[in-house]
Amino acid sequence: MPKKFIDINLSPEEIRKGLKQIKNWEVKKKGQAVQAVASSALAIQREAKRAAPVDTGRLRAGIVPEFSPSGLTAKIFVRNVVYAPYREFGTGSKVEIPKGYEAFAAQFKGKGVRQVDSKAQPHLIPAFENEQPKFIKKIKKILHLK
C-alpha cells in the first residue's frame, strides 16, 4: 500500500510563529538542563565531602565542581591535593578499583605517594555513582522521555 502524504499549507506568519515556539522550547529546556547539571554536581560534591576521609581537612576542602561555559557539563574533582587518588583507590596490596574505572585509575599507578598498603577510602566515585541515576531521571523528565 503506497504511503499517503498530507499537504499542509502554512502561511509565512504561521511558520515564523512555529519556529519561535520551537526556539522558546529549546531555551526553556536548556535552562532546565543547566539547573539539573548544577544540582547534580553540587549533590556529588556534598556527598563526596561527607564521605571523604579527614586528617587535616585539606582533601574535603579541595572537592570542587567546575562548570563548562554552557553550564551543560560539570567536573567534580579534588583541587591541589596530590594524594587524593591514593585515598580514593588505596595503595599497594590494598588498591581497590571499581569496575569500569580501571583506565582512570591507571593514570595514577606508580606516581606520587609512596606509602604502601594504604586502605582505599572511596568518596568521589560512590558519590558520582549514587547521583548518576538521579541525574538521568531529571534529564528524561525535562525531555519528557520515560
End-to-end Cα distance:
33 Å
The shape is elongated
State the total count of DSSP E strands. Answer: 2
Q: What strand order characterises the main sheet?
A: 1-2
Q: What sequence of helices (H) and strands (E) makes up the elements?
A: HHEEHHH
Quaternary structure classification: single chain
Largest pleated sheet: 2 strands, antiparallel
The total count of helices amounts to 5
User: Pairing-aware structural class of the strands and helices?
Assistant: mainly alpha
Low-confidence stretches: none
Radius of gyration: 23 Å
| Fraction in helix | 40-55%
Mean pLDDT metric:
91
Total domains? 1
Any descriptors?
single chain, 146 residues, mainly alpha, two-stranded antiparallel ribbon, 2 strands, 51% helix
Detailed description of the structure:
The protein is mainly α. It has one domain (12-141). The protein is built from five helices and two strands, in the order H-H-E-E-H-H-H. The chain has helices spanning 12-51, 58-62, 84-89, 102-106, 124-142, and strands at 63-67, 74-78. It has a two-stranded antiparallel ribbon with strand order 1-2. The mean pLDDT is 91.
Structure summary:
With 146 residues, the chain is mainly alpha-helical.
Protein topology:
Elements: H1 12-51, H2 58-62, E1 63-67, E2 74-78, H3 84-89, H4 102-106, H5 124-142
Antiparallel strand pairs: 1-2
